[in-house]
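To make the argument concrete, we let one protein speak, a sequence paired with a row of structure tokens, as a model reads it:
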Amino acid sequence: MSTIKRIYKGATMSENLKITGIEIYKADIPFHEPFRIAIMEILCAQSVFVKIFTDKGIYGMGEANPYWGITGETQSINIAGAVDLAKLILGKDPLNIEERNKEMNKYLAFNSTIRSAFDMALYDIAGKAAGLPLYALLGGGKRSFWTDNTISIGEPEYVAKKAVDYMNQGFQAIKVKLGTTKELDIARIKSIRNAIGDKLPIRVDANQGWDYHTAVNTLKALEPFGIEYCEQPIAHWDYDNLRRVRESTTIAIMADESLFDHHDAYKLAVGGCCDYFNIKLAKSGGIHNALKINAIAEGAGIKCMVGCMTETRLGLSAAAHLVSARPNIQYADLDGYLFMKEDPIIGGAQYNIGEITITDTPGHGADVDPAFLKSCEMIAVK
């Protein structure tokens, strides 16, 4: 591999590249049905695609899919932020990802989702310039893996029907959104177990919906039902009680909304607050910080999952390369595009039911269908 000097449209990794323009696209993709979690409801994927051009003919693609109840960003906020970030990096070296992230983090300290789109596009450029798929650029190997499929909040009969459907499709694990009342959440899991038996593991996610006492009482009641882990049972800021919840139940606890960047990872690890980390590019600000989170997790003996918002296969492809490249990432929750009525992405990670296979195409391998992009509102920064 070290002897390869692949040329991509006239550029090599040894040459200097310069960012010459950025295109920002507003993309609304409808769901089959509303997606409900404890803190919000989403009716469609309101993504922002970012396309970064260079002077050597290489371009990189990124995606931001904001969840306002988690990151505080909306599609409109992300578009406005993208224009500013585009002006910030215009004319600069896209391969100096360290410096570009430092600039973006300083300029938009809390807008992690739109920063992740730019980070993703920069890594796409770096992979293309090197002639390497992203997993190899990250120094990792290629492996296929499975994602679970998620059931949003609904009545017990509804969630049981969805669980049976997912099982019959061939998924190997089911994730269930909880975080309402103890009685309803227990009823949901009982209904699912009655419908599918013990054939599949169940993972639950309260999305901060419980207080401490409700979390402890609900999780204790759910212990007989074979729950693999529970994501974010209580408020993101309540580290002390997250640790207490973990100590009060046999169900493993996974930090999600409590974990944005590597600083959060350090505090969670030192505090003994959780058993697992849920890394999301939309929270971490992209691959650059996600790698730091995983490194801290490895040092603390904490396994990770890479999760998602409801990105298309473009954002999910970048996340899939991260999973492949880091064996410490034990779980994947990369099911976002499965909720969409259309798939506007060409190339990228391929799904066989829930089994995900990445490609050897340089970069993350995914692009947006040009016909779809033509239907999107676009802002160009040059």
Notes: The longest helix spans residues 112-130. The CA atoms of residues 272 and 367 lie 40 Å apart.
